[in-house]
Design goal:
The complex is a heterodimer of chains A (about 220) and B (about 425). By secondary structure, chain A is of the alpha/beta class. Chain A is built from 6 helices and 10 strands. Chain B contains 11 helices and 11 strands. Classes of the chains: A alpha/beta (about 220), B alpha+beta (about 425).
Chain lengths: ~220, ~425
C-alpha cells in the first residue's frame, strides 16, 4: 500500500498542493496530465528521490519521508524498480555491469552464480545477450532502451515506477514493455506516468493531475 | 559492499582515464616541484649552512687590534696604528673581566719567511705568513692531529716544526694552482704528513739580517690556521720573533676568548670594545645566517604553497567538471538505491587511488631526478673544488610528507568538489 497524505511540493510554482492518495498493492495506476503539472514529481516523491515540502508518504507502512538517506536508499533498492529508458544506463559501465548494479547493495544474501543467472535470463528476454560486454555508447538506440529497461526491473522489486516509458521507444520496444507490464499486472504495484493511451487498457485507475491536485478520470 | 564500491571506482577510473589523467599529471607535477625544492632547500640548509655553522665556535669572542696598519717587511714591522697592540698587559686586563673563562692568543711571525715546496716534482718558493696558536686551543676545538703540536727550538734544529694548514689553502691550491699547472689535486687528508722547508728571515726580495732554514711537517688542518699560510705552536713563534729581534716584546694579533656562559658574550664584547680593541662574536653572524636561511626557506615554502594552491584550485575545478559530467550517472545510482555516502565513497575512493599512484610516481621520479642531478653537481663541484657535497637532503620523512600531503590535499579537494554536486 502506498499512502500519500497532504503532500505539497513547490519549485518556482506550486506543483503539488495538499495531495492525498492511496494506492493499493498490486494495482496498475496511470498518472496523466499536462507537461509540468507534477506527474514526475509525484513519482519521485513515491520513490523517495524528492522530498515533499510537507505531508507524509508511506510505502508498505514505512514512512519514507522520515527515513535517513542510507535507509531510504536501501528501501528503494529493495522495493522500487524505476524504469528509465532515456539516460537510463551508467555510461562508464558495460551492459553486464549495469545489469549487476542493483545487486551491489545488499548483495551478500545473493550468490554470484544466482546474479549471473538472472543477468543471463533477462538479457535473453530482452535480446541483449550479445552486447553485455559493450559500453552504452557503443550500442544502438533500441539496444540501449532495452538494456535500460532490463537493468531497471532485473531485481524484480514489488513496486514498478515508470516515467514516460514509451518516450523515444520504437514499436518493437513498446511491445516488449507492454508485455512486461502485462506480465506483472496484478503481481506488482505499477505506477506509470504517460501522456499516451497505450497502457490505459491495463490500468485499474487513471489519475489526472491538474492545478496541483489529483482527480480520478 | 565497500569492495564492490571500490571496484566501481576503478571501473569509472578506467573509463574516464584520459580525463582523469590530467588530474594525475597535475598532481605529479606539483608533488615533484614540492619534493624537489623541499629537498633542495633542506639540503642547502643542512648540508651547507648548518655544516658551516657547526664549524663556527659560537661561544667565543674574537678580539683584534683596532688599527690601520701599513706593513713593510723590509723595514721590519713598521706600523702606523691608532691604538695599542694586544700585549700581555691587555690580556691581563681582559682576564679580569667577569665571565671570561680562557684566553687563547694568536701571535704572528713579525719578519719575512719563505717556503720551499716540492710537490709532485714541481718546485717553487713563496713568501708566507706564519702565525702561532696555543695547542690548548686545538684541544678545545677537538682537532685530531698526526703528531704533537709542540716544538723545542734549538740553535741547530733537526726535527721539523709541526704546522697546521687551513682548508681554504687546499681549496685554493685545487681550484687555481693545480688546475693551472695540471698537477694532481689534493684531498684534505693528503696534505697531512707532507714536509716543506721554511726559510726564516728570507723573502722574495732577498735575505734580511738573519736567516735560518727549518723543515716543517703538516700535522693537521684547522679553521684556526692562517688562511694563506701556516700555523705553528705559539711558543715557537715567540722564540723565533725574539731570535730575529733581541728587543722584541711579545704582542698578539688576535685573541680567542671563551666565556663561562653564552649569555656573557655580548656584555664582555662591549667591555673589550671599551679597551680600544675590535671585538665581535660569531654568534651574531650565526644568528644572521640563520635568519637569512630561515627567510629563504620560508620564501621557498610560500612560493611552493602559492603554486600548490593554484594547482589545487585547478584540480578542484577539473574534478568538479568531471563530477558534473557524471550527474546523470549519479542520479541513476540514486534511483537504483545507492545512498549519498555510497556515491561519495565511489568518488573519494577514486581520488584516493589517483592521489596514491601520483604520489608514488612523483616520489620515484623526484628521487631519480635528484639522484642524477646531485651526482652531476657533486661531480662538477668535486672536480672544481675537491669538496664532496650533496645539495639535496633526502629522507623517508620527506617521502611520507609528500605522500601524505598529496593524498590529503587530493581527497580534501575532491571532497570539496563533491559538496558542490547536488546529490538530492
Amino acid at each position: 500500500m502506498i499512502e500519500i497524505i497532504d503532500c505539497s511540493k513547490s519549485y518556482e510554482n506550486i506543483v503539488l498542493n495538499n495531495v492525498s492518495l492511496k494506492i493499493k498493492d498490486k494495482s496498475f495506476i496511470i498518472l496523466k496530465g499536462l507537461s509540468g503539472v507534477g506527474k514526475s514529481t509525484l513519482l519521485n516523491i513515491i520513490a523517495g528521490i524528492v522530498k515533499p515540502d510537507s505531508g507524509i508518504v508511506k510505502v508498505n507502512n514505512i514512512e519514507i519521508t522520515e527515513l535517513s538517506d542510507s535507509a531510504l536508499a536501501k528501501f528503494r533498492n529493495a522495493n522500487i524498480s524505476y524504469i528509465r529508458q532515456t539516460q537510463g544506463l551508467v555510461h562508464w559501465l558495460n551492459i553486464r555491469d549495469n545489469l549487476e548494479l542493483p545487486f551491489y547493495i545488499d548483495a551478500q544474501d545473493m550468490e554470484k552464480s544466482a546474479i549471473k543467472k538472472m543477468i543471463d535470463s533477462i538479457s535473453e528476454q530482452f535480446g541483449i545477450t550479445n552486447i553485455l560486454k559493450k559500453y552504452p555508447e557503443k550500442i544502438s538506440g533500441g539496444q540501449y532502451q532495452r538494456a535500460a529497461i532490463a537493468s531497471s526491473i532485473i531485481k524484480s522489486q514489488n513496486i514498478i515506477l515508470a516515467d514516460e516509458p514509451t518516450n523515444n521507444l520504437d514499436k518493437n520496444n513498446i511491445k516488449i514493455l507492454m508485455d512486461i507490464f502485462k506480465k506483472y499486472k496484478s503481481k506488482k504495484t505499477i505506477i506509470i506516468v504517460s501522456h499516451i493511451d497505450i497502457f490505459d487498457e491495463l490500468a485499474d485507475e487513471i489519475l489526472l493531475i491538474e492545478n496541483g491536485k489529483i482527480q480520478n478520470v | 559492499m565497500y569492495s564492490k564500491l571500490a571496484l566501481l571506482s576503478l571501473k569509472n577510473l578506467k573509463f574516464n582515464f584520459f580525463r582523469i589523467f590530467f588530474i594525475f599529471l597535475g598532481l605529479i607535477s606539483i608533488s615533484v616541484i614540492l619534493y624537489f625544492f623541499l629537498a633542495l632547500s633542506l639540503g642547502i640548509k643542512k648540508n651547507l649552512i648548518d655544516q658551516y655553522l657547526e664549524t663556527i665556535p659560537v661561544n667565543e669572542i674574537i678580539v683584534t687590534r683596532k688599527n690601520f696598519m701599513l706593513n713593510v717587511p723590509l723595514l721590519k714591522n713598521f706600523s702606523f696604528s691608532g691604538s695599542s697592540d694586544i700585549t700581555q698587559e691587555i690580556i691581563s686586563k681582559i682576564s679580569e673581566i667577569k665571565g671570561v673563562k680562557k684566553i687563547y692568543p694568536v701571535q704572528n711571525i713579525s719578519f719575512p719567511v719563505s717556503i720551499y715546496i716540492d710537490l709532485f716534482g714541481y718546485n717553487f718558493q713563496s713568501d708566507l705568513a706564519i702565525s702561532g696558536i696555543p695547542s690548548e686551543l686545538l684541544e678545545e676545538d677537538h682537532i685530531k692531529l698526526k703528531g704533537e703540536f709542540k716544538y723545542e727550538l734549538t740553535d741547530n734544529p733537526q726535527t721539523p716544526i709541526p704546522a697546521l694548514v687551513s682548508y681554504s689553502i687546499i681549496d685554493l691550491y685545487n681550484s687555481n694552482f693545480a688546475e693551472a699547472n695540471k698537477l694532481p689535486k689534493l684531498s684534505y687528508e693528503a696534505i697531512i704528513g707532507r714536509h716543506f722547508t721554511l726559510v726564516f728571515g728570507y723573502s722574495s726580495f732577498g735575505a734580511i739580517k738573519k736567516m735560518q732554514r727549518i723543515r716543517c711537517k703538516i700535522v693537521g688542518l684547522s679553521k684556526r690556521a692562517e688562511l694563506l699560510g701556516l700555523t705553528i705552536p705559539i711558543e715557537t713563534v715567540d722564540k723565533l720573533n725574539k731570535w730575529f729581534d733581541d728587543k722584541y716584546e711579545s704582542k698578539y694579533s688576535t685573541l680567542y676568548i671563551k666565556t663561562d656562559k653564552i649569555s656573557d658574550i655580548i656584555p664582555i664584547t662591549n667591555q673589550i670594545k671599551n679597551l680600544g680593541l675590535n671585538a665581535y662574536s660569531l654568534q651574531e653572524i650565526v644568528d644572521k645566517i640563520n635568519t637569512v636561511s630561515f627567510g629563504i626557506i620560508s620564501l621557498v615554502i610560500i612560493v611552493l604553497s602559492s603554486i600548490s594552491i593554484a594547482v589545487i584550485f585547478n584540480i578542484f575545478n577539473y574534478y568538479l567538471t568531471h563530477l558534473k559530467s557524471q550527474e546523470t550517472e549519479i542520479r541513476i545510482l540514486k534511483l537504483i538505491g545507492f545512498s549519498n555516502n555510497n556515491i561519495r565513497f565511489i568518488y573519494l575512493c577514486q581520488s584516493l587511488i589517483i592521489s596514491i599512484f601520483s604520489a608514488i610516481f612523483s616520489i620515484i621520479i623526484t628521487r631519480i631526478l635528484i639522484y642524477y642531478l646531485d651526482n652531476f653537481i657533486s661531480k662538477k663541484l668535486f672536480e672544481f673544488t675537491n669538496i664532496k657535497l650533496s645539495l639535496f637532503f633526502l629522507t623517508y620523512n620527506i617521502d611520507i610528507l609528500v605522500f601524505s600531503a598529496s593524498v590529503i590535499i587530493t581527497v580534501f579537494t575532491v571532497f570539496s568538489a563533491l559538496k558542490q554536486i547536488k546529490l538530492n
